[in-house]
Amino acid sequence: MTSKPSWRTALLRALSGLLIAGLCLCLVAPSAQAHARRTAHARRAERIVWRRVVLDRHGLIQRPLLRAALRSLKAHKAQVTDWDRIAIVDLSRPSYLPRFYLLSLEDGSVLSAVTTHGRGSDPDQTGRAVRVSNVQGSLASSTGAYVTGEAFDSLTHLSRAIRLDGLDPTNSSARCRCIVIHEANRMDGQNYASRAWISAHVGNDGKGQAGRSDGCFAFSDEDFPFILTRMTPGTFIYAGPTRLPQWTPVVPPTDCCPEAALPGGASQTAHAMSGG
User: Fold this and answer.
1) What is the 3-state secondary structure (H, E, C) of 160-205?
2) What angle do CA 89, 90, 95 make, to 5 degrees?
3) Which parts of the chain are beta strand (E)?
4) For residue 103, what are the CA distances in angstroms to 51, 85, 267?
5) What is the mean pLDDT of residues 143-170?
6) DSSP-derived 3-state class of residue 122
7) What are the two backbone dihedrals, phi and then psi, of residue 241, each rounded to the nearest 5 degrees?
8) Looking at 7-21, 22-36, 153-167, which range is the least confident one?
9) How far is Cα 125 from Cα 203, in angstroms, rounded to an integer?
10) Both ends of the chain: CA-CA distance in Å?
11) At residue 137, does pLDDT exceed 60?
12) Which of 1, 20, 235, 243 is spaced 20 to 30 A from 50 at the CA atom?
């Protein structure tokens, strides 16, 4: 006959079981905790925080472009006076898509609009910018940081316009070139950034495309009033990406355009026919 184990033996067995279970938990728990920490860190890394505000939480702006814009904003902060919002322009996107992003620095929200690029950046009229330039007469878009200047009535563009000052070597000639924000008006009454224009001008890829400016950021008549009221003097704008090749065309040397020096300026009606 076998005798029943004493209560001491049963207690020792129970304690041994608890000890083994505890050792297993000690081995497993650090691995699970480490995984949880890595996951949380990855999620935090996907967010870009500015003054404790999560910017663009829905990921509308390409992350490398957003980071480049924030680095540039920090570098040029002395020239910025309006800190309510910034604008980021993604020239890698086709012209029929919204690519001018208004990013609130107060709540991180993003609003977007279609904007044009220069005819010199899109010589084959494909709807995509393939190069940029800082040269007067290139009619191309420029990448880099800008700060908005004064608003004025532009006879050239048949609308209100906002002057831009380039802050980088890639766009330092912006004011001299009369690179401005304006409504995409033509003398025939059409707007070459409007939905109607984009739908009517389909490229070889089957996609519509906005018309081309002379390097300015031009907007539809629907979007421009909204943009105009928010691009107050001293607002930061960043246009990228920097991977777009710099183009140096051979053009005759010219003076700055009249509207660069004179508010209201002289009329240059030829420019008002821009738009493809």
Assistant:
1) EEEEEEECCCCCCCCCCCCCEEEECECCCCCECCCHHHHHHCECCC
2) 100
3) 48-50, 53-55, 85-90, 100-104, 110-113, 144-154, 159-166, 180-183, 217-219, 236-240
4) 14, 5, 34
5) 96
6) coil
7) -85, 165
8) 22-36
9) 8
10) 105
11) yes
12) 243
Q: How far is CA 115 from CA 38, 128, 192, 276, in A?
A: 39, 12, 10, 14
The predicted pLDDT at position 262 comes to: 45
244-261 tens-digit pLDDT: 999 999 888 788 888 885
CA distance 84 to 73: 13
Instruction: Tell me which residue of 68, 232, 244 sits closest to 147, measured CA to CA.
Output: 232
Residue indicated by tokens 């001018």: 100
Lowest mean pLDDT of 9-23, 46-60, 207-221, 251-265, name the range. 9-23
| Cβ neighbours around 221 below 10 Å, total | 13
Query: Cα separation of 56 and 48, whole Å?
Result: 8
Strand, coil or helix: 217? strand
**How many angstroms separate the most distant Cα atoms in the chain?**
118
Average pLDDT of every residue of the chain: 85
Question: Which CATH superfamily, name and number, covers 51-273?
Answer: L,D-transpeptidase catalytic domain-like (2.40.440.10)
